[in-house]
Specification:
- The chain is built from 4 helices and 3 strands.
- By secondary structure, it is mainly α.
- It has a 3-stranded antiparallel beta sheet.
- A hairpin with a 2-residue loop joins strand 2 and strand 3.
- The protein is elongated and about 75 Å long.
Length: 134
């Protein structure tokens, strides 16, 4: 085999690999877009549900901020108490609570779970995984 033929084969393989990499990048971009759109659907459903349900009756007025925050922590712990021993990804209790699943509110839930770990109520067996401390 001549050197020129070997160089030609290497160049052809390089071009095929570059084309495959470009194709994979395009596929990743399409999948990422589809994932973002799919993850936004629960937030859209929650907003629609609020519109359909209408305003809250006066006897169910919203609680002050501290009480609402306390209630969120109670609801998080209830989710873990209802499933003792189950390991949750951080989005599982977030989805159970029903707030929008956009990044900022998911980060708030993630922070709350971290606080419950530091308080000793939950344990973190893996990155972004939580379960009730036994």
């Amino acid at each position: 085999m001549k050197v020129s033929e070997l160089l030609r084969l290497l160049q052809a393989e390089h071009e095929e690999t570059a084309a495959r990499a470009d194709s994979l990048r395009e596929q990743i971009e399409r999948l990422t877009t589809a994932l973002v759109e799919t993850e936004a659907r629960p937030a859209e459903h929650a907003a629609t549900r609020k519109v359909i349900d209408g305003p809250t009756p006066p006897d169910h007025a919203t609680a002050p901020a501290e009480t609402a925050t306390g209630t969120v922590y109670q609801r998080i712990m209830t989710a873990f108490n209802d499933h003792p021993g189950k390991e949750f990804r951080f989005r599982d209790p977030h989805e159970h609570l029903g707030p929008p699943t956009d990044e900022p509110s998911a980060n708030v839930t993630h922070s709350r779970l971290g606080r419950l770990v530091r308080q000793g109520l939950l344990e973190q067996p893996g990155r972004s995984h939580y379960q009730k401390r036994t």
